[in-house]
Amino acid sequence: MKRYFIFVLLSIFWSFNSSFAQFGSSNVDTDSTQQEMNFVSNTITNVMDLMTYEKGRFSFGIFPVMDYEEYKGVEIGLMPVFRFAPKDTVSQGRFYRPTTIMPQFSFSTKGQVNIETDFVSFIKGKWSIVSRLNYLKYQDVFYGVGDPLEEEERSTYNTERFFWYLELLRNINDVFFVGVKADMMYARHFDVTGGSFNQDIVGFEEGAALGVGPTIKFDTRDNTLYPTNGSLLSVSAIFYDKALGSDFDFQSYNLDMRKYVTLKEDKTILAIQGVVNSTQGDAPFYKLPRFGGSRGMRGISHPAKYADKNNFFTQAEIRQHLWWRFSAAAFVGIGNTSEKFDHNLFNDIKTVYGFGGRFQLLPNDKINFRADMGFGPNGDRAFYFSVTEAF
Q1: pLDDT digits (tens, 9 = 90+) for 152-175
Q2: Quick one: signal sequence residues (predicted)?
Q3: Beta strands in 45-109 (DSSP E)
């Protein structure tokens, strides 16, 4: 999900311009340069202090957000962030995370309405809860299923969706977790233009997909927000069934593998991810595996451009700390989609690559504002603003 923190970004641009001006002059005094850099860091800190409040175990921040994509126009809104820490963090376990609530309210110039709330809680060192509620109304593009349709063949339509997701995990020990996932999405579509999106497409009619299933995680990461060492292995299956109230019968399977390595004194981090998704049955088009967006295969201009019953992608990223709260990153990825889980999945592999900048929003937590430029197949490209790392 893209995020644009206006005040932060202006400060970042100003600081880079100041720094480049300093480095470009052969007569710059070292003490003057250091004073200038200190002034930059103090200025940004003061700006951040205006948007955040901390008292005891409670912290609060409210950030303006802005986004742009051609199909939805300019999106503006607000995102408050609430964080609650327990009195005793030692007994919470190795992978403790404070309770965090992040609502967002945004509107776009082309009529998109987005209201969402993310909730994360770690209870008594044993249970973790991750949940999201989301209401979304916007105009979208139908690219087809499988290879994307040519531009003149694509349909546009308005959609209204309500989404709820829950993951409840119980840790068996410090690194092994078992639990359950629940997923529900209601969708209706209207004002369709073009003939490619029609009643032959599963999910064209109004309906809801509702499913539950098991999940297992093996997690040795040293930090869940910004890992520098360790691994993550996550396996899950969700079964959507009419007995649960779903309008669709299908199954969804996911495998997510990640590895993090410190290459140089916590300054240079190598992150690698591999993902495999598969669906069986009659899944609606909006629940098919896909890649693109700010987290997987950055450089593809629309997250629904490549969608089919099966997909895989793998990506690697180098994260380099530069100075103070500033960092940079470079990434590359490959992936593909296929109707069947066979050799066709490895034909016509898609490749993406790109680079980006990072700014650490909070002094004590590695929560980064992220700006990435990605380049994809056939001249495709995309620009992303987001919070937290892609993986």
Answers
A1: 999 999 999 999 999 999 999 888
A2: 1-21
A3: 52-55, 58-69, 73-84, 99-108
Among 267, 296, 276, smallest CA distance to 389 is for: 296
Sign of CA dihedral 48, 52, 54, 58: negative
Contact residues for 261 (Cβ-Cβ < 8 A; gap 6+): 229, 269, 270
**In sequence order, what are the residues at sequence separation of 6 or more whose Cβ sits closer than 8 angstroms to the Cβ of residue 150?**
none
The HSE-up count of residue 380 (CA atoms within 13 Å, CB side) is 19
C-alpha to C-alpha distance for 3 and 21, rounded to whole angstroms = 28
Q: Would the pTM count as exceeding 0.85? A: no
Query: Tokens 């201009």 label which residue?
Result: 301
Eight-class DSSP state of 207: E
**Residues near 329 by Cβ (< 8 Å), separated by ≥ 6?**
317, 318, 319, 320, 355, 356, 357, 358, 370, 372
Task: Count helices and strands (H / E) in the chain.
Answer: 2, 19
Question: Residues 318-377: pLDDT tens digits?
Answer: 999 998 889 999 999 999 999 988 888 888 899 999 999 999 877 777 888 888 999 999
Residue 264, CA distances (Å) to 261, 269, 323 in order:
9, 7, 15
For residue 228 the two structure tokens come to 């520098």
Give exposure, 112-139, as e/b (b: 16+ Cβ within 10 Å).
bebbbebbbebeebeebebbeebebbbb
Contact predicate 211/246, CB 8 Å: yes
Joined together, the tokens standing for residue 48 give 């951040």
Q: Which domains does the chain have, with CATH numbers?
A: 6-387 (2.40.160.50)
- Rounded to 5 degrees, φ, ψ at 388 are 75, 160
Tokens representing 119 are: 């909730």
